[in-house]
Amino acid sequence: MNMASSTAAGNRNEHTPDARPPRSSKERGTAGPISFFIAMIIVILASIELVSTFHTYAINLSQLNSLRKQEASLIAQKQELENNINRWNDDAYVTAQARDRLGFVFAGEQAIRVLHPEAVTGTAAANNSGNSGKDSKEDKPWYQEMASAFEKADKGSGTKNSAKNDKSTADSDGNDGQQ
After folding, report:
1. Under the phi-then-psi rule, with left for phi > 0, alpha for psi from -120 to 50, and beta for the rest, what region is 57?
2. Rg (Cα) of the chain, in Å, rounded?
3. Which residues, other chains included, contact 93 with Cβ-Cβ below 8 Å and sequence gap of 6+?
4. Are the C-beta atoms of 10 and 22 separated by less than 8 Å?
5. How far apart are CA 13 and CA 77, in angstroms?
6. From the first residue on, what is the mean pLDDT of each consecutive set of 10 residues in the chain (179 residues)?
């Protein structure tokens, strides 16, 4: 029975118009590698797309972490500035800063200024031992600079210059009379 059915099927294939002739070994061999290479190209393209997606994700995650750090530092800076504003709204702080920075005193108080604080503490003398006088001059606040300038003017450094000026004016007056 198997034989009869196989001959009947074989006869059917010969008589049908759609029947394909049997393929040769060369034709069957070329279809396999072409489909394999097409499948490999599809796999390679898919892996490239997947890698680029993960790369974009990693870059975006890095930027997000950077922005979070920046946000945290800005929040801390904002808090510090708000604390400074609140501090300056306090009258006691303003008074302390006026005394420390500007040397202000209340009415009835006596201001005492130490001319050479390094002699008392000993720290400034050690720090400025190798420095020139210009460096120590820059370390003073502006009001101390102004006070030291007034002291130098009062001590007589201005009297020598005025004596020279008087002498030069007398010479020029004498020269004017001779001409």
Report:
1. alpha
2. 50
3. 87
4. no
5. 88
6. 50 55 58 91 97 97 97 97 93 90 85 79 57 56 86 70 51 48
Q: Contact, 111 vs 105, CB < 8 A?
A: yes
Q: What is the pTM of this model?
A: 0.39
- State the sign of the Cα–Cα–Cα–Cα dihedral 2, 4, 6, 8: negative
Sequence-separated (6 or more) residues with CB below 8 Å from residue 98: 104
Distance CA 22, CA 161 (A): 126
Angle (deg, nearest 10), helices 91-102 and 25-88: 80
Tokens of 40: 């490999």
Q: How many CB atoms within 10 Å of residue 145?
A: 13
Domain boundaries, the chain: 38-108, 113-157
| Helix (H/G/I), strand (E/B), else coil: 90 | coil
Check residue 156 and give its pLDDT: 67
